[in-house]
Amino acid sequence: MQESKSVGVVTPQYVQIDKPLQLKSGLSLESYHLVYETYGQLNAAHSNAILICHALSGNHHVAGVYAGNEKSVGWWDNMVGPGKPIDTDRFFVIGVNNLGGCHGSTGPASIDPRTGKQYGASFPVVTVEDWVEAQAQLAEHLGIEQFSAIVGGSLGGMQAMQWTLDYPEKVRHALVIAAAPKLTAQNIAFNDVARQAIMTDQEFYGGNFYAYDTLPRRGLRLARMLGHITYLSDDSMAAKFGRSLRKGELSFGFDVEFEIESYLRYQGDKFADLFDANSYLLMTKALDYFDPAAAYGGDLSAAFRAAKANFLVVSFTSDWRFSPQRSQEIVKALLDNELSVSYAEISSSHGHDSFLMEPSCYHQLVRAYMDNITI
């Protein structure tokens, strides 16, 4: 087996799309730009391209580091690189920041060319279908007519599925990891509580906080703390924090006492400094709206009739946000259409975040699947 290495120093790239994007909401963007990164080399036949779709708080920076910042490691650097499961010595890998994001692609903090001011609350709601269409425009820009594979975890896995429905001829393989065919009522509820935390922050100003030179920091911090709890498992929190006290004894007050409280507040504070509140609202709404079976009377098997790709579907035992049962729903719908499907339920204590980790057998499984893709 080849030794795994980093892709090294990487540089974001930008593309301006001047073709209007008709959104599912009925609104449109006359033009927009996307920020993306690439790793590896596109072969002469343009047949070795892989698209990585990011989850709620992800972005285009999948692997490698930025010059002069050794801590700026890509969010899936353990998965993508030379000799890694998604091997950049074989594949040309693309990571893109979705529309509505806050890491360089057109989003709420961008300037609306119609007004000369930041979009703010006027930025339209975007869906997984809209992201797929924008990603297809990026593929056209790069001269890619068909992807060897489209890969994503969580919300990224939903995008991978949508690609196989909207562009069945353009996807040979889809890797759907820790995903679901739609959100449960409980998951929608979690998202709404997070949005309410942001929208009721007095510094939110109806989404136009940019004009007031402020941030709804408290709301975004609470939203992230809530979300982070759902990404972990009870076992992982017990193993890492238990009921450990920061000072070894109770203080009989309401400040931070338990280590888990300290950890969550740290995660919330860090996130509030890095992410845009309006983007968080948009990303959670895209999660809520994803439901390919809705147009088929709730029949997921009927929704997948258009798909032609081969699939790898992966779930994790401790993921209670997108449980293995949800992945099994996807597998059944694919098998009902006699598609080629590989399925694995990986034992892991890391909860939903398992797809970002390296639990036993997970990376070996992805490596084995990717190694069998011909280019």
Question: How does this structure look, described?
Answer:
The structure is a single chain. The chain has 375 residues and is of the alpha/beta class. It folds into two domains: 13-182 and 291-372, Alpha/Beta hydrolase fold, catalytic domain (Rossmann fold), CATH 3.40.50.1820; 187-284, Orthogonal Bundle (Rna Polymerase Sigma Factor, Chain: A), CATH 1.10.1740. 32% of the residues lie in helices and 15% in strands. The chain is built from ten helices and 14 strands. A hairpin with a 4-residue loop joins strand 9 (111-112) and strand 10. Helix 1 crosses helix 2. The radius of gyration is 21 Å and the shape is globular. The chain starts with 12 loop residues before the first strand and ends with a helix. The record marks 321 as: Important for acyl-CoA specificity. Keywords: Acyltransferase, Amino-acid biosynthesis, Cytoplasm, Methionine biosynthesis, Transferase. Belongs to the AB hydrolase superfamily. MetX family.
List the helices and strands and how they pair.
Blueprint: E1 13-17, E2 21-22, E3 28-29, E4 32-39, E5 49-53, E6 80-81, E7 86-87, E8 92-96, E9 111-112, E10 117-118, H1 128-142, E11 149-153, H2 155-166, E12 173-177, H3 185-199, H4 217-231, H5 234-240, H6 259-274, H7 277-289, H8 300-303, E13 310-316, H9 324-336, E14 341-346, H10 362-371
Parallel strand pairs: 5-8, 5-11, 6-7, 11-12, 12-13, 13-14
Antiparallel strand pairs: 1-4, 2-3, 4-8, 9-10
